[in-house]
Amino acid sequence: MQTPAHRPFRETTLVVASHNPGKVREIAELLKGRVETVRSAGELNLPEPEETGDTFIANAVLKARAATAAGHPALADDSGLAVDALEGAPGLYSARWAGPDKDFALAMDKVRQELEARAAEAPFTARFVCALALAWPDGHVEAFEGTVEGTLVFPPRGDQGFGYDPIFQPTGHAITFGEMDPAAKHAMSHRAQAFRRLTAACFAG
Ligand SMILES: O=P(O)(O)OP(=O)(O)OP(=O)(O)OC[C@H]1O[C@@H](n2cnc3c(O)ncnc32)[C@H](O)[C@@H]1O
Ligand SMILES: [Mg+2]
């Protein structure tokens, strides 16, 4: 059986369909040298669509498709933290656990409280998952997923990165993503893994 061909990205402008400045920064870094002009959804005043999908891929696809309204291809990221002892929570609700003020100190503490409520014992194994969707204005979509395994540590450590980074210690490392140099995080993160798949398929030459 023939594997379906991926559509190469040949345009000059790409919209990063995210309203999270931490993500936009990481994605722009990962796209460096591959795209001439990168615009963000926020800068184009694109609305933040409701994330009604029941998978990371479904949400990434709906965010990417919504952002093609500006007439350019758009790249969206839907990601989250899945904790084994919490049956995969917060998962798709990772952003929502931070509440309307996007307070991640609160969200990380909620994770700690939920683990305590279940009398879960360390090591608290978890993974970050990232789905990337690249959509074109004609409706074509390419989507890829990446993960990184690790354990959770409390109290949170480090002020690099964003979101749940200060409690996530990737397997094989003694520091959290919050303590890690951004370049080191980019070399191993769930986002970097998904990016590797995306670039091999759509930015290969
Ligand atoms: O939907 P957009 O506009 O892209 O921004 P968002 O912050 O709402 O993003 P998601 O819906 O994908 O929610 C994912 C949440 O998971 C967390 N997350 C994802 N990747 C992360 C990373 O690399 N480090 C720490 N936390 C991460 C972070 O808190 C995000 O807010
Ligand atoms: Mg979101």
SSE inventory with pairings:
Layout (H helix, E strand, L loop, with lengths): L12 E4 L4 H11 L5 E4 L15 H12 L6 E10 L20 H14 L6 E12 L5 E12 L15 E3 L11 H7 L1 H13 L3
Parallel strand pairs: 1-2, 1-3
Antiparallel strand pairs: 3-4, 4-5, 5-6
Helix pairs in contact: 4-5
The structure holds inosine 5'-triphosphate (ITT) and magnesium ion.
Largest pleated sheet:
6 strands, mixed
* Gap from first CA to last CA: 25 Å
Envelope shape:
globular
> Helical stretch count?
5
Mean pLDDT over all positions: 95
Using only CA atoms, what is the Rg?
17 Å
> For the largest beta sheet, what order do the strands appear in spatially?
2-1-3-4-5-6
Task: Give the number of DSSP strands.
Answer: 6
Instruction: Just name the CATH architecture.
Output: Alpha-Beta Complex
Structure commentary:
- The longest helix has 14 residues, at 104-117.
- 28% of the residues lie in helices and 22% in strands.
- Helix 4 packs across helix 5 (190-202).
- It has a six-stranded mixed beta sheet with strand order 2-1-3-4-5-6.
- The protein has 205 residues and is an alpha/beta fold.
- The mean pLDDT is 95.
- The chain has one domain: Maf protein, CATH 3.90.950.
- The protein has helices spanning 21-31, 56-67, 104-117, 182-188, 190-202; strands at 13-16, 37-40, 74-83, 124-135, 141-152, 168-170.
